[in-house]
């Protein structure tokens, strides 16, 4: 338990704040971000019946809660839309590593 508290304290110190989202440009090209975008794309397909193909991750921000919230903005294409879409996904990751999509929209 002590190790977990130390790890959380270090994480908070690195993040710089508790409560708000912090921009994380270091995660733009990270494999975990790519995996979360795939999770969001599947959620968009299932919940909104919209097929999208991600193109580029525009921004990533994190928020420390009882786990970590990720806010990911990415561009995508869809066969049912002309031009590019801008999608925003919020993915929650527990400290145990389980991930779930809190929200995902494209416009």
TrEMBL record:
Keywords: Signal
Protein name: Cystatin domain-containing protein
Signal peptide limits: 1-16
InterPro entries per UniProt: Cystatin_sf
SUPFAM superfamilies: Cystatin/monellin (SSF54403)
Recorded superkingdom: Eukaryota
């Amino acid at each position: 338990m002590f190790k977990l508290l130390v790890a959380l304290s270090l994480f908070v110190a690195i993040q710089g704040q508790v409560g708000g989202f912090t921009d994380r440009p270091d995660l733009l090209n990270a494999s975990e971000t790519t995996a979360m975008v795939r999770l969001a794309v599947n959620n968009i397909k299932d919940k909104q019946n919209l097929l999208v193909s991600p193109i580029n991750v525009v921004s990533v921000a994190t928020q420390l809660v009882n786990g970590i919230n990720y806010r990911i903005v990415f561009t995508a294409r869809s066969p049912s839309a002309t031009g590019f879409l801008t999608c925003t996904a919020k993915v929650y990751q527990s400290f145990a590593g389980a991930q779930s999509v809190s929200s995902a929209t494209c416009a």
